[in-house]
Model the fold of this input.
Amino acid sequence: MISQTSEYALRAALYLASRGDSSPASALDISEAVHVPVGYLQKILRMLARHGILVAQRGTNGGFALAKVATAISVLDVLKASETEIQRITRCPLGIKGHTSLCALHRLLDDEMARTERTFAGTTLADLLEGAGGVRSLCDSTGRLPDSVSISRAGEKIPEQE
Done:
């Protein structure tokens, strides 16, 4: 659902939001912090800057910073800037002639896509950092899960016993 480019864009935006200041960070610093190859990340950062998510500053002390405060940038803003759209179902995806409205299954799927889109639109970078609304970042800056979380064989998160 979310492309690798969009995931990298979200990681970079979250890193910049987490810094707590508006001073620019170099692409190399961001790359090392979010574990994304710097060449690929530079393209993503420029894309985010073109869409008004980041500002780019040239020069010795240049780099990238958020263009707005973290409470004003939604997950959906970053996804759209990194060319990920939530695919809605507006007509029969099977191409069956005579289906002028969505069947129950396709309506259900579209309802869930709409809910996902609303969730992404209503969740800001600050929400992800602060855990507002029950959303919590699972990975630390090294990409590891916190010590308080284990993963079962089925991939489910299980809090460790105290």
In short: Residues 4-159 form a domain with the Arc Repressor Mutant, subunit A fold (CATH 1.10.10.10). Confidence is low (pLDDT under 50) at residues 132-138, 143-162. The longest strand covers residues 54-57.
